Amino acid sequence: MTTPPDPSVPPRPADPPGGDLDPALVPVAMALPVLSPSAAALRAQRLRLVGIALMCGAVACFACIDTTAKYLGRHFDILEVSWARYVSALVLALLVFNPVTRPGLLRTRRPALQIGRSALLLSTTLLNFGALKYLQLDQALAITFSAPLMVAALAGPMLGERIGPRRWAAIVVGLVGVMLVLQPGFGSVHPAALMSLLSAVCASFYAIATRVLSRWDSDATTLFYSNLLGVLLLTPAMPFVWTTPTDPLLIGLMIMFGGFGSLGHFLLIVAHRHTPASILSPFSYSQLLWATTLGFVVFGDVPNRWTLAGAAVVIASGLYLVHRERVRRAR
């Protein structure tokens, strides 16, 4: 099948009349490296492996965020933990880009949507950190994995995307997997699991808002507003919940908090620059492996069979949605 031309690559200049190459261009043409088909395939494979490695590194950073939040939540109020995460991320963002060096950074064409999206992200953060205070890392993450399923369900009515019966079936099966983790009626999971489920709901609406905003504002503008609004909304509450950290470890974790997020998103961006999203998506679920490992090493938590079974169902449903997306795009 013929590969369509990449619109980002400028078209090759037309040959001069008669089909002969311009003599002035002969030295330049001879100096250009020519890759054999096997060498080009080897280079593409190497780039895919680099992208996969970067993706795994990104989700490892995201698992470190949850681990840090759970650890700090044992010593500080959740509002203070969330505030530390937003402040450290905003400071790092200002070091890279700020309104002084980039005058158009604060210019947005959809201010109401920017504020709404940032509020959804803040709600997702507060609910997730609150749930992590009581749940194991693997439990909270298994429930959070339902967010892509909700995005797929919401993409139909909100974005006008067509959802076929197979994708609907995968969404329903994935939600059944979430119910396995929650175990309703068995009483073995903390009620905070509902906070994790609400966090996934907010995250799905946040993802939809991000898709819409990508058509209007730059990624830098959207990222800056996300951190700025979080700091502005949480700072007034600090005098009422503030506990001054004295342990150097806790201070260091608060400072590193935003670093994990910034590094994770940076690795994610570079990974997508090297490798198609359809190849990277399945490896995002390796975050569960990182979360399970960190939960055992830091907190001594061992996942139960219900969590593992539910997570397997949710991940399988997500992978099937990725497969159906590949089929749809191929058609």
Set out the fold topology:
Layout lengths: L25 H6 L5 H36 L5 H19 L14 H22 L4 H8 L2 H13 L5 H18 L10 H21 L5 H16 L3 H4 L6 H27 L2 H4 L6 H13 L5 H26 L1
Helix pairs in contact: 2-11, 2-13, 3-4, 3-9, 3-11, 4-8, 4-9, 5-8, 5-13, 5-14, 6-7, 6-8, 7-14
Walkthrough of the structure:
There is one protein chain. With 331 residues, the protein is mainly α. The chain has one domain. It is built from 14 helices and no strands. It has helices at 26-31, 37-72, 78-96, 111-132, 137-144, 147-159, 165-182, 193-213, 219-234, 238-241, 248-274, 277-280, 287-299, 305-330. Helix 3 (78-96) packs across helix 4 (111-132), helix 4 (111-132) runs antiparallel to helix 8 and helix 7 (165-182) runs antiparallel to helix 14. The longest helix is centred in the first third of the chain and has 36 residues, at 37-72. It starts with 25 loop residues before the first helix and ends with a helix.
Short description:
This protein is mainly α. The protein is built from 14 helices and no strands.
Order of helices and strands: HHHHHHHHHHHHHH
Number of domains: 1
Alpha carbon gap, first and last residue? 12 Å
Oligomer: single chain
Biggest sheet details:
none
Helix content: over 70%
Alpha-carbon Rg, integer: 23 Å
* Poorly predicted runs of 5 or more residues: 1-32
Structural class category: mainly alpha
> Number of DSSP helices?
14
What fraction strand?
under 5%
